[in-house]
């Protein structure tokens, strides 16, 4: 091969490159081009082999020509590769484009059931007054639910608290008062507790009664407590919970485990009076039953209906609304 022939061959290869590279649009095609032109058997590489056949004085010129050709093709390959990568990144950015100014998916937040809100608030009021929160079982023995509270087997008060029996002497508790007995039996006086919990009665459901409802029991036993303390603490509690605009009424009542006993009604004029709790001075017989000395200490207790408190606060006229799980009702609180 002569120098002229080599020059002509270079020009051909350059044309071939121009055509072939114009049609290469992806990394695989570029790699194929590299092999075809610069690979071990590539067209540029084989021209380098032809160099050896040239006369020595022509080799330097020919070498420059070939190096220039190889340099052009290498640089063009690099350029094309860079451009393809930038295109790919651009396409990905476009495809994965995310508009941070768009509003997110809105999911409604849950909230505490109104009865839970009321219970927590009442616990909080009494904790601030120095009471502890206690609890007891919902399945109770006849002894704690009745006997220890001076409600013997034949006591007519049992009719008011007729309940659901699991076995002969095992029932769903009818009130939270059995927790009083459990706590007093477990510790010496003084006692200052509130006990929230679920209660069960065979009451026909109506606007103010539910067979399952909630009470909060309060018990304070200490030296020197009188009915005046009871009235005072209930007054404090009612005004802390309801604020102004509510009226409270004490009237005489009877419970086998308190003497004297009272019931407390609340109303928001012009609404009706609603009984919210039973209360009274702990009967000395109960103190003796748990091993306390009635000459040493006295105490008082009450049992408060949680649903009734919520009804008065929000003007809810039917207790059954609390248990229907209607989101339109619940989301108002
Ligand atoms: C009692 O349960 C007594 N253990 C209260 C007590 C405790 C008296 C300590 C003295 C000392 P009573 O049955 O009245 O009392 O119920 C108390 C409150 O529970 C009622 O005022 C009412 O607010 C609520 N309650 C009673 N039965 C139901 C019911 N079926 N549905 C909703 N609330 C009820």
Automatic annotation (TrEMBL):
UniProt-annotated binding residues for Mg(2+): 259
Chief location bin: cytoplasm
Gene Ontology molecular function terms on file: ATP binding; magnesium ion binding; phenylalanine-tRNA ligase activity; tRNA binding
Subcellular location: Cytoplasm
This enzyme's EC code(s): 6.1.1.20
Cofactor dependence: Mg(2+)
GO biological process terms on file: phenylalanyl-tRNA aminoacylation
Record keywords, A-Z: Aminoacyl-tRNA synthetase, ATP-binding, Cytoplasm, Ligase, Magnesium, Metal-binding, Nucleotide-binding, Protein biosynthesis
Transferase keyword on record: no
Cofactor binding, per record: Binds 2 magnesium ions per tetramer.
Gene Ontology terms: cellular component: cytoplasm
InterPro entries recorded: aa-tRNA-synth_II, aa-tRNA-synth_II/BPL/LPL, Phe-tRNA-synth_IIc_asu, Phe-tRNA_ligase_II_N, Phe_tRNA_ligase_alpha1_bac, Phenylalanyl-tRNA_Synthase, tRNA-bd_arm
Domain Aminoacyl-transfer RNA synthetases class-II family profile: 116-312
Catalytic activity: tRNA(Phe) + L-phenylalanine + ATP = L-phenylalanyl-tRNA(Phe) + AMP + diphosphate + H(+)
Matching SUPFAM superfamilies: Class II aaRS and biotin synthetases, tRNA-binding arm
Entry keyword annotation includes Signal: no
HAMAP family listed in its UniProt record: Phe_tRNA_synth_alpha1
Annotated family: Belongs to the class-II aminoacyl-tRNA synthetase family. Phe-tRNA synthetase alpha subunit type 1 subfamily.
PANTHER family per the UniProt record, alphabetical: PHENYLALANINE--TRNA LIGASE, MITOCHONDRIAL (PTHR11538:SF41), PHENYLALANYL-TRNA SYNTHETASE (PTHR11538)
Subunit annotation: Tetramer of two alpha and two beta subunits.
Record-given protein name: Phenylalanine--tRNA ligase alpha subunit
Gene giving rise to this polypeptide: pheS
